[in-house]
Amino acid sequence: MADEPTDIVAAPVATPVRKRRVGRWLGGGLATIVLLASLLVVGLYWALHNAAGSAWLVTLVPQLHIIAPKGSLFGDFSAERIDITLPGTSGVLRLDAPRWHALDASRGDHGRWLHLTIDALHADRVTLLRGSAPSPTPAEPASPPRTLRLPVEIEVRAASIDELRFGAASDAPTLRPVLARIHLGADGGALHRFDDLATGYDRAGAAGSASIGADAPFLVDAHLALASTATVPPWHASVAASGPLSALTVNATARVSPSATHAAQSLDAEAVVKPFAAWPLGALHVATTALDLSAFSSAAPATTLSGHAVVTTSGVDRPATLSIDLRNERAGRWNEGLLPVRSIQGDVRGRPDAPNVLDVQSLVAELGSAKLVGGRATLHGRWTTDTWTFDVDLAKVRPAALDARAPETSLDGKTHVVGTGFAAAKADAWAVDLAADISGQLADRRLPKAAPRDAHVQAKARITALDIDLRSAEARLGSAKATLAAHLTRKATNVAWHAKGQATLVDFDPAPWWPGATDSLWARGSNRLNAKGEFDLDLPAANASSAYAQLAATRGKASIAWHDSTLAGVPLEGAASFANSDGTAQPALDLVAAGNRIHIDGRVAVAAGDDAWRVSIDAPELARLSPLVRAPGSAASSPALAGTLTATGHVDGRWPDVTSQGELHGAALRYGTLTTSRADA
């Protein structure tokens, strides 16, 4: 019995000791967490307000690459360039000279962390650089987001871009400038607004506003007004989109005021767009009256288009049909700035439950103008996201009715085009195969009566991102022909091309194929060209600064030799060559034309001071060269050139920093009205 009290007393003594120890550990841990959190807040505050800290902070975002940042993220910030990698394979958004002024932060409301305000946000240029590989086709249509609410409110009081480019090419579509006020999270976070939108493109200016709800059904309300700038007659247009994001009603109108030469023009379009549906176009109706495309773009031809385009659907598992019926009452030749298409009728079909397949039942273009019938071109085939096949049939197409510089003939034939691999994720997986077989009877009045009339053109080619194989191209007229075979390859899309090929001319006369103007070079005398050329070249990058730099950067060799030839009635013999194995290009020419000879040897180096040229001329019969050098429109009754000339010379350097030496002797020289009895130097 004596042991029982001892056991009862010992148990409660140890328990409070362990509780106090755990409490001290828990309290110390919480204090450490609070201290670390405080240090983190202080560090974040320092990073946001300090230039060095801001520069370090932006490196933590993997999709963001900033070059030469200056200033702090809070306050005033600028950079030389910012590249933002877009999701998937969409590409890169490049901002040149981006900067903002007076970014400030205050406490957010309605459960949001912060309210950010920026007085001014600007970039000199923003360029959308497209991805190198196509995005994979989704197995199912995209679904609408659950919410567009943001954890922060962002206000940009003045946003501006001097130049917004869609692509890196010099001729890429470009908006100048782009202005806006942006408020993301307005009305307590329920609305995103884009106000005072303004921009310009080519001959037009645009202004408008847009908003979208942050909660389903994400109501959209967008309006854009467009007006011409410096065009006669003036025009104006409008585009509006409204309704839930999943089924937008889009309306567009365009009006051109009547003038002394044009009736009033109009375009009206209405569509239902379902961006998250398998078939995004719910309905479409477009109607035009006397529409002139040149009023909207300086690059477009003048037209008078009237007609309609209608999309109809009768069920998700039944074909949807796009019907096109357009007439061009101002059809005319391309060289006159007109569109040589009299009418277009089309029938395109696809099923909403199979949106990746479109069948072009027929697309028929009646060519020519009101006065000149130009024949017919018919397109039919099938398009899918990965593979497409199209056939173009030509029936009695008259090139001279399409362009006055083209030959007078009537063409019939077919072109077959197949594209594959366009849905593959790999950039160089796509390929296009082309085969053309076209023939016709030449009927140009300028051709001699005994000249052959049966013309035939054939071509076969395969094109990929890394390989262009022109397997054969031949133009034949009677026994005369021109042939070309070429193969261009490169190891990657950002690497320059290597080109290799051969070309031949056999008794070839370019005049029947492209007569040109009445006083063109071909029309000044008989033509018969016999030549053979070949090339094996590493081509320079497209960004070479000048023609000299391109020559110096082109490696390899090329040559052409012609014999028993006549151009504009002038006999020709000679050869030309190019060689470059070490960065110094060596072009050469040796030409004998009607007893007159010129010989040129050159050296084009990377450094302009290393250029050198040697020239020798022996021309005892300059008058026989008159058809080649006569000014357009001048009389052919007397020689444009006369006299004799001999010269030798050596030129070092590149213009304007050149030195030269040599000698020249001429007698009874004349060109047009300029004459001299003797010239010595």
What does this structure look like?
Helix 1 crosses helix 2 (51-58). The model is unreliable at 1-47 and 133-139 (pLDDT under 50). The chain is 11% helix and 54% strand. The protein is globular. It has a 38-stranded mixed β-sheet that branches. It has 681 residues and is mostly beta strands. A hairpin with a 5-residue loop joins strand 12 (204-213) and strand 13.
The main sheet comes to: 38 strands, mixed
Radius of gyration: 36 Å
Bin the strand percentage.
Answer: over 45%
N-to-C span: 142 Å
What number is the mean pLDDT?
85
Runs in which pLDDT lies below 50 for 5 or more consecutive residues are 1-47, 133-139
Structural category is: mainly beta
- Quick one: overall form? globular
How many helical elements?
Answer: 6
What's the number of extended β-strand segments?
38
Helical content band: 10-25%
Q: How does the SSE layout of this entry go?
A:
Blueprint: H1 3-49, H2 51-58, E1 64-67, E2 70-71, E3 75-78, E4 81-85, E5 91-96, E6 99-107, E7 114-130, E8 152-165, E9 174-175, E10 178-185, H3 186-189, E11 191-201, E12 204-213, E13 219-228, E14 235-244, E15 248-256, E16 265-273, E17 281-291, E18 305-312, E19 320-328, E20 341-351, E21 354-368, E22 373-384, E23 388-397, H4 399-402, E24 409-420, E25 431-442, E26 454-464, E27 467-477, E28 480-489, E29 498-508, E30 529-538, H5 547-553, E31 555-567, E32 570-580, E33 586-593, E34 596-603, E35 612-619, H6 626-629, E36 641-654, E37 657-671, E38 674-680
Parallel strand pairs: 7-8
Antiparallel strand pairs: 1-4, 2-3, 3-6, 4-5, 5-7, 6-7, 8-9, 8-10, 10-11, 11-12, 12-13, 13-14, 14-15, 15-16, 16-17, 17-18, 18-19, 19-20, 20-21, 21-22, 22-23, 23-24, 24-25, 25-26, 26-27, 27-28, 28-29, 29-30, 30-31, 31-32, 32-33, 33-34, 34-35, 35-36, 36-37, 37-38
